[in-house]
Amino acid sequence: MSAATTFTERVGGVLVAPVATLRAIVALPSGRGASDIAWLVAARLVAGETPRLLRAIFRGIDLGPIIGLQALLMAAQQVLPDVIGILAAGMLLGLFAGRRPTGDTNADPLDVAAYAWVPYLTVELLASLLFTLRGALPSPRLRMVIDGVAVAWALVVWTLGVSVLRSARQSPASSTSKEPS
Amino acid sequence: MTRATLRLVGRGLFAGLAVLLALNLYWIGRNWTALRAVATPTGSAAPDFTVKLLHGGETRLSDAAGHPLVLAFWATWCGPCKAELPSLDRLYRRFSPDGTRFLAVNIEDLSLREKVDEYARTSGLTMPVAIDGGLLANRYHVDTIPHLVILDAHGKVSEVLDGVHEEGEVARSIQHAAEASGAH
Lengths: 181, 184
Fold this sequence. Notes:
The structure holds 2 protein chains of 2 kinds.
Chain A: H1 7-16, H2 18-26, H3 32-48, H4 50-63, H5 65-76, H6 80-96, H7 109-134, H8 140-170
Helix pairs in contact in A: 1-2, 1-7, 2-8, 3-7, 4-5, 6-7, 6-8, 7-8
Chain B: H1 3-30, H2 32-36, E1 50-52, E2 58-60, E3 69-74, H3 79-95, E4 101-106, H4 113-122, E5 129-131, H5 135-139, E6 147-151, E7 157-162, H6 167-181
Parallel strand pairs in B: 3-4, 4-5
Antiparallel strand pairs in B: 1-2, 3-6, 6-7
Helix pairs in contact in B: 3-6
């Protein structure tokens, strides 16, 4: 298996080859994983909440910039649970991953936890597309099942992330930052 | 697994986001008029209505013909609305002798009538309260509450105030509507 070296490869790899991809992510410079996923969260907000964002802009035009800004913040809140989830997962991963070796400039727990959100996004995105195309909302029970699958898959990747980051920290020489993209 | 496979899967996710964006843009195109209308435009004729009053009977837009009218959209779950209602009620007592009409329009479900009634009683509201399950709010493009629509005596929208506003500011807006109407 070749290491994922670009953003697109890391996003795909975390879904189909999580262990090898997480190793590649751990070898990245600190902050790279989190900034990658910040772009993905922004893309998810724009793609998923376009009508709400557009309406916020119209409210700003018609009712004043403060009202528009409030409406934009309300729209942005739609991804707040995802962001809080990533931050909490990053903090927990930091607790489980062990002490960071002195001078280690490789990925933080937050970088690894951020990539563990990709499976969650994938399941939720597929469900959104499916139900949008069908023109119907899922029943509350089905909604729970979808959320459950999304969280479970993310949890599996997060657990693998704990293991990979722990190993990297126990043998820091094997995971030095050398990744160019 | 090859890097090409990883790229393909990654691109699949990005393509999914692009499709979702395209579906949303399509929906926007089909619902442009409703999406664009975020408030009843100032100067436009107020949408006509008939609503049931909380304490029986009903009221129409035409009942306020020749007088400024303040429509205050609110709900019992809305803290800022409940903070603003007492000052609106004071304005009602101040301006109603001159002919200005007030209507506190509760947007909640009709099944919550008793709860709304209890709140109106315990908070000592004296202005007329209507409840219509949010139909009037839809007609006036109300997204967030509290939301005030101030009409002049000719039934045209004089001003729309979104969010909480100070009593003095609302009073000035009512005076402006009354002056524009030639009612004062």
